[in-house]
Structures are given as C-alpha cells and as structure tokens.
Amino acid sequence: MSAIRQVSGDERLRTAFTLYPYAFDETPSPAAVEDLRGLLPYHEGNHTLIAEEDARTLATAAAFPAWQNLRGVVSPMAGIAWVATHPAARRQGHSRRLMRRLHSDMVDKGHRLATLFPFHPSFYDKLGYICLPQNPTATFTPEGLAPLLDVRLPGEVRWQNIKDGFDTYRAFQRTLLPRWHGFTYTPDYRAARVLDAANRWLVTATVGDTVAGTMTYRIDGYGGALIVDELLCADAIGRALLLRFLAQHAHQVTTITVTVAPDDFPETWASGLAVRTEAETAFPTAPPLMARLLSMEALHGAHCGPGRVAIEVVDDQLLAGRYLLDGSGGTLEVSASGTGERATLTAAGLSGLAYGVLDPLDVVARGLGEITDAAAAELRSLLPRRVPRSFGKG
Ligand SMILES: CC(C)(COP(=O)(O)OP(=O)(O)OC[C@H]1O[C@@H](n2cnc3c(N)ncnc32)[C@H](O)[C@@H]1OP(=O)(O)O)[C@@H](O)C(=O)NCCC(=O)NCCS
Prior knowledge:
Blueprint: E1 3-7, H1 11-14, H2 20-24, H3 33-37, E2 47-53, E3 56-70, E4 73-85, H4 94-108, E5 113-116, H5 121-125, E6 130-131, E7 137-140, E8 156-161, H6 162-176, E9 184-185, H7 188-191, H8 193-197, E10 201-207, E11 210-219, E12 225-228, E13 232-233, H9 236-247, E14 255-259, E15 276-278, E16 290-293, E17 308-314, E18 321-326, E19 333-336, E20 342-346, H10 347-354, H11 360-365, E21 369-370, H12 373-382
Parallel strand pairs: 4-5, 12-14, 17-20
Antiparallel strand pairs: 1-2, 2-3, 3-4, 3-9, 5-16, 6-16, 7-14, 7-15, 8-10, 10-11, 11-12, 11-13, 17-18, 18-19, 20-21
C-alpha cells in the first residue's frame, strides 16, 4: 500500500517532478534535471503531496495558495495543479486519495475554496467540483476599432515590457479582487513566471493617478496576430483607452484576439465592429475552470438576496451536514440547522449555486440534489445566478 506525504524544496525534483514531463510535456525528450530545477521557484509555496511505495513516487498532486472572490467575499483559495500518476500506476485510486488528502490539508491551512483546470470533468465531478463559464475570445481587425480614435477620453496609456510594469499590473489585480465575483489572485512566486519569460507587453490605462485598466499581450509577427491575454478594466473609460491603443496597430497586424469575460459583449465596444466571439471547450487542451467550496465558511457574508432555507449537503467528507442559510440581513448567514423542509445537495450542487452558475432547477436536472419548489424559490432568491469572471490565473 502506498503512503502519502508532503514534499518541499529540492526534494520535489527527486519525487513529484519525476512525473511531470511524462504527464504534461512532449516526451521522450532529453529535458535535463537542470531544466526542471529552474522551475523550482515557481513551486516554492506549493503544498505538494506524493504517493510513494518502496521510495518510488507513484503519483502527485499540489495546490498553490491563492485568493478568490465569491459573491463579494474574498477567501483563501487552493489552486490545485500538477495532478499526475505514473503510467503504470494509473486507475488504482492514487489521484483520488491524493485529492482527498490535499483538500483536507488545504482546509487545515484555512482555505475555503478550490479551483482547478480538469483533464476531464467527470474525475472532479465526484470530488465536488462544478465547471465555471469559459472566458471567450473576441477576434477582430484593428481597423474595426477606428471609431474610438476620434473620441476624446480622459486619461492615457503607458506601454512597457511586463518586466518593468509587473508591480503596477499586480497592484491593479489586487484592486479587482474585491470587486469581481470569481476573480483569482495568485501568489507572487507563481505570478513571477511572466517575468522570467518576459514575453509579454503590458499596457496600462490611467485616469489621473488611478489605474483604470491593464492588458498583457504579444504579437506573433508582422502582418500576424496581436494576442491579448486578459482584458482587465475597471470601467468603460479604461476599456476604451486600451482598445484605442489596439486600434493603433492597423496595418501592422491583421487580427487582434482578446480574452474577455463571459458577460462582456465586444460587438458593443465600437460602432460597426465586426467581431467573432467564441469559447471553445476541449479536454484536456482547453478546459474551463472548475471550482468548489472547501468550507461553508466561504459563504459567510456573501452578497445575497432575501431568503431562508435549510439544506443538507450529502456525500462529501468536507461539507456533509445540515445548515440554515439566512439572507434576511442582506448578507448570507450560515448556521447549523434544526429540523424542517430542506434541500438536499451534493457538494457540486451547492458549489454551482454558490458560484452562481446553476439555478436550483439546474441542480435537480443535473442530478446534483433534490429540491422542492418552495426550497428552490428560496435558494433562487438567496443565491441568484451570477457570472463569475475567472480571470487572474497568473
Ligand atoms: C489523470 C490522472 C492523474 C488520473 O490518475 P489515477 O491515479 O489513474 O486516477 P484514479 O485511479 O485515482 O482515478 C480516480 C477516478 O477517475 C477515473 N479516471 C481515471 N483516469 C481517467 C481518465 N483518463 N478518464 C476518465 N476517468 C478517469 C477513475 O475511473 C476513477 O473513477 P472511479 O473510482 O469512479 O472508477 C492520470 O491519468 C495522469 O497522470 N494523466 C496525465 C496527466 C493529467 O491529465 N493530469 C490531470 C491534470 S487535471
């Protein structure tokens, strides 16, 4: 029987890292241990677990400590990554055991939420995760933004390499964290990956002394494509300043592709902008983010509508139990519940309601709970649908 333990520092090289190239890269390849050593700083604060037998690493899973906004409440979030099992040890339950241990370790460290990019959602469905909406990309020509060039706007833009603007970029992300439901702020040691690569430009829009928007991007060649990672703006002025900068690339690039929030509508950005907005989901190459509550504490203080309902969470080692959700004060109160009519929810069902991506009827239709009409009406009012902006992956 394999044993699970935590590894840290250089020990990762001889244990967890031995599984990464095969699981995630093109192999076989002559990738030297030294190449992997160069990645160590980006794992510095990760909680890395391995399953081992006779000193051989059979499987691994890790989590980085991040922050995420859930309905206005910012909580510590575990970013689960680097889940891999040796090809000869697969389908023996190693990853499932590692995930359970990772969850309980991260709860012990105070994390209330968890997210990951799945290789296949069914593996994580059973572990309580629900898919969040994919951020679409909008593709258009720089000429399509020409109407913005004539608009008088307050503010200005600054253009620099991400290496020089990293602190500004991160500071702006911190201002979005308390504002955007679903937004994630990753730890510095992980976000610093963009610094070493230094393969992104950063544009910062400011109005007065206030940053109103940032975007990182790259250009793949003369006459080619300009690809923006995430369009982050505090308001429409910030966005217009950034788009006007993009418009200046007419006759240099042919197309511009921008990753936007699912509730953004690029066709409204400029009159007559011809744009293709699309979101592809594919496994394992283009997965949507999956998320779950690790603790009911994540719901305390969440912005909610009026309502009061008893729920029972079933089939989950972390959340199983009975609770009363009360929104009569304008923010959510969660307490241990007594008796009465209640909705029965799996962890994935509750997570779908909490993140605002499922209506109570969706929960029933997906087999993620049993909810009476009366309880559904209360839940719908308490936790109305919301679109998470799962930006800030870093
Ligand atoms: C994905 C991976 C980590 C699974 O590890 P594993 O140790 O074989 O997983 P487990 O044995 O714990 O399986 C747990 C459950 O997932 C299911 N599962 C495992 N691999 C699966 C696959 N490729 N497709 C669908 N389901 C799968 C198992 O059937 C099991 O479900 P069950 O208990 O209901 O039968 C492993 O195949 C791997 O290293 N793949 C390459 C890297 C990768 O994709 N990592 C995941 C990144 S999110």
